[in-house]
Every structure is written in C-alpha cells, then in structure tokens.
Predict the structure.
Amino acid sequence: MKLLGIETSCDETAAAVVEDGRRVLSSVVASSVEEQALYGGIVPEIASRRHIEAISGVVEKALADAGVTAQGVDAVAVTAAPGLIGALLVGVNFAKGLAFAAGKPLVPVHHLRGHVASLYLTHPGLAPPFLCLVASGGHCHYVRVDDYTHFTVLGRTVDDAAGEAFDKVARTLGLGYPGGPAISAAAQAGSPTAYTLPTPKAPGPYDVSFSGLKTAVMNLANQAAMKGEALDVPGLAASFQQKVADILTDKLMAAAAAAGSRTVCLAGGVAANSLLRQLAAEKAALAGLALKLCALEYSGDNAAMIAAQGYYEYSAGHTAGPALNAWATWPMEEDFSTSRQD
C-alpha cells in the first residue's frame, strides 16, 4: 500500500511516498530556514507564504520520484496538528483538494505521531511497545508507544521545549539560527564543565523544564556584558548542551524503568544532537536497554514520517472527510475523531 504524505507544520514544505509504512519511495523537502534565519527564528506569515509557493511543486516531485501519480497512491496523509495554524492550513487544504480530485481517502496525522513513525523508516523491524522521547523545536514528550495508533504520554515539557531553548540560547550567545546545530558546533571548542548551570524542577517525575536553564544562560551573558568581562561562549554552549542532554536522557531512563520498557527510542529534530545520542547510548547500555535512534535524514520535519504513520492510521480506519480542519494544538493521545473535524 502506497501513501502520499504531506507535511507543512512549521517551515518545511514536504511530500513523500511511502510503501506499507516502512519503505520510502520518495522524500522531498523544501525549507525556508535560510530566510527565517534573517529574523532569528520562525516568522509564521513568511512560513505560510513559502508553503503556498512550494507545495504544488514539492508534491509533484515526490510523486514523480516515486514513479506514481496521485491516482496511483492508495491514500493521502497530511499533518493536521499540532503546528503553526497558517502553515498547517496550507497542507491540509492542499491534501483535501488532491484527495478529492484523485478519489482517494484522506488521512489526518498528528505531527508527533509522525516523529515516532520515523523510527519505523530507520528500523524496519521495530514494533511497539517501546518508549520514545520525541524532542523537537516545539515539543518534548516521553511517550509510551502501546501500539501503532495508541500512545500514553508519561511526561512532557512544562514550558520551553529543548529545541526552543537551543534557539534562544544560541541567539543570546550570538551563534545564529537554527540554534541546535549552532550550539553543537560552538560546543566543540568548549568544556562542558566551564559553567555550573541549574537543573530546573518540573512537577511530574517525567516532566522537564528548560525555561530556568535558558534564563540562567541569559543572566550569565548579561552579567558578563555589564561587568565588561569576557564570556567563554564555547564553554557556555558546551555546558548548556551537556545539561540539556543530561536532563533528557536521565528522564528517559527513569520513564523507561517506570514503564517497564526494554526498548527506548529518540526521535525529532533534537534527536540529531550528537551528544544526546551518545549519552542515550551510554545510559541505555548501562541499564541493559535496547536503543533505537531515528536516522538523521528523518529527524527533522519531513513527509516520509507522515506517510508512514498515515499507513497505520488508515489501517485503523482513521480517515477524514472534506470538513477536516487544522489545529495548532491537539493531544497526541487522541485520534482525529469525526466529532472534532468541523
């Protein structure tokens, strides 16, 4: 079964064709990140306009690369939530029109469920149950994947997501955007023990908080500027990155122990961070857990993961009609039920 996937939740316009939820036949991504970098972060209006300009060509190329037409796929899957509402609406409306014109079922997909499904593209033999940390620019969830369409969120960020904190700290240190790669590059020349940074408290045992950590870095930078002292930028970047990676992996191990999971996974854009991957591997080995890492090419936003999850949603009967809407927020645990599609 071949599904066309469409993803426009943030600043990547993406389309892909995936067979049986595991085999990628094509994957095309057009990003406005270079333009967004001029403003130090995502400008929703610019993202929406670039989606409008790019989506038709991106979908056409994805179909052509896969050697199929719109009539040749079995269904059209699209990210319906969460994300920037203007950006999401571009993808949802395009998918609705395409599905109607081609006479194909329309399958709404939750963006974070898509990130989990990126693991199936990387590890074709992987099957639920397992525990997954989904960490990206806007999200940080510890998810027990009970089966392909049933999820239990054990913990999440209570304020800033890890990727968001990376972006804000990078901007504070003058390292540019996007923050994750910028912080990682700067940290190569610094010591992770150069600065002592706090571990913010969170209400739940598997919740995380990064707002206080971000503020601590900003205070150090401001104090150095006011005193006319030199700031060890590589050292502060390395110390911040180390703290974030420690927090994320410690919570992952704790959540896995509580859930009784023997397999732990990393997915999402932040899962591309080399230190995070290294620490997860070390701690998983010590705990005797199997670790599955999302391939770097599928860690950021892409449509292959949406098509992959769409396969399982479609198999479970989770389809939508022309009344399908887009939502900026939506609980990962809930399906897009018909009662909430209008």
